[in-house]
């Protein structure tokens, strides 16, 4: 089954004449790991924002996890239940402890406070940071913060993880660890993983790499197609 179905998606920003997305067609299967590459300004973040219903297109159709993101009115529900976001700047809330940050996405669930705490600590186990549960994010290294962001992205059992340069600010050893963790989660829980990256070493780990250029997809092939480009 497809978890993403996009047809002829167009997006123009109000102050710009450039089409940030200029007719995108894309399908992604359930449980797939897809990387999105392309030069700066090509439309990668815009595409990711559309997938997470953070912004609406001008025209075209976009269906994600069974939600029609254009006509559906329950976009808050969609974001809360279906999507885990990981951004480069991991936007953790500084005044909350690590474990409290992970509980945030669970507030829309039916879990009690103690169930939320148990689940948040379990997620910290998965990313190897249980011993940091009561620390504030400012006490953690960049790699540790990004692992907290991964745990938080998993807190609502999303069917899709959207990650925008998740390892962009990390050294290569740390970023390998972070990616390994994401890929393990994708495999063990059949989570669809969509990663925007500038790093070809990261991109080629995916089942499939999509290249965006001037708001269009120029390559949506299997990853073997990339071999002669590296
Ligand atoms: P990336 O590192 O993914 O290339 P960008 O620097 O393109 O990120 O964008 C970072 C943020 O700034 C995004 O939220 C994007 O929507 C916004 N942004 C990018 N270009 C512009 C622009 N020309 N005007 C206003 N906001 C922009
Ligand atoms: P990428 O992620 O590949 O760097 P973006 O999706 O951020 O590209 O940007 C695609 C195009 O849309 C660029 O020309 C960028 O300047 C423009 N853009 C992105 N976000 C905004 C925004 N919030 N307002 C105006 N223009 C934007």
From TrEMBL:
Transmembrane segments: none annotated. GO terms for molecular function: ATP binding; ATP hydrolysis activity; transmembrane transporter activity. It comes from the Archaea. One of its GO terms (cellular component) is membrane protein complex. The keyword Nucleotide-binding applies. Pfam families: ABC_tran (PF00005). Residues 4-230 form the ABC transporter domain. CDD domains: ABC_MJ0796_LolCDE_FtsE. Keywords: ATP-binding, Nucleotide-binding, Transport. SUPFAM superfamilies: P-loop containing nucleoside triphosphate hydrolases. SMART domains: AAA. PANTHER family: ABC TRANSPORTER ABCH.1, IMPORT ATP-BINDING PROTEIN. This is ABC transporter ATP-binding protein. It comes from Methanobrevibacter millerae. The lineage of its organism: Archaea, Methanobacteriati, Methanobacteriota, Methanomada group, Methanobacteria.
């Amino acid at each position: 089954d497809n978890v993403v179905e996009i047809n002829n998606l167009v997006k123009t920003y109000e102050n710009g004449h450039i089409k940030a997305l200029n007719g995108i067609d894309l399908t992604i299967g359930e449980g797939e790991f897809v990387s999105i590459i392309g030069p700066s300004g090509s439309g990668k973040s815009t595409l990711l924002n559309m997938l997470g219903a953070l912004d609406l297109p001008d025209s075209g159709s976009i269906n994600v996890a069974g939600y029609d993101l254009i006509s559906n009115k329950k976009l808050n529900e969609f974001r809360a239940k279906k999507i885990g976001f990981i951004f480069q700047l991991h936007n953790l809330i500084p005044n909350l402890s690590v474990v409290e940050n992970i509980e945030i996405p669970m507030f829309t669930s039916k879990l009690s406070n103690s169930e939320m705490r148990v689940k948040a600590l379990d997620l910290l186990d998965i990313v190897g940071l249980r011993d940091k549960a009561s620390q504030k994010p400012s006490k953690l290294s960049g790699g540790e913060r990004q692992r907290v962001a991964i745990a938080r992205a998993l807190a609502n059992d999303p069917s899709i993880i959207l990650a925008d340069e998740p390892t962009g600010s990390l050294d290569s050893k740390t970023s390998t660890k972070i990616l390994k963790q994401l890929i393990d989660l994708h495999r063990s829980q059949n989570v669809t993983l969509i990663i925007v990256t500038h790093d070809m070493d990261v991109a080629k780990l995916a089942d499939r790499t999509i290249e965006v250029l001037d708001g269009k997809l120029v390559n949506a092939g299997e990853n073997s197609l990339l071999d002669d480009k590296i």
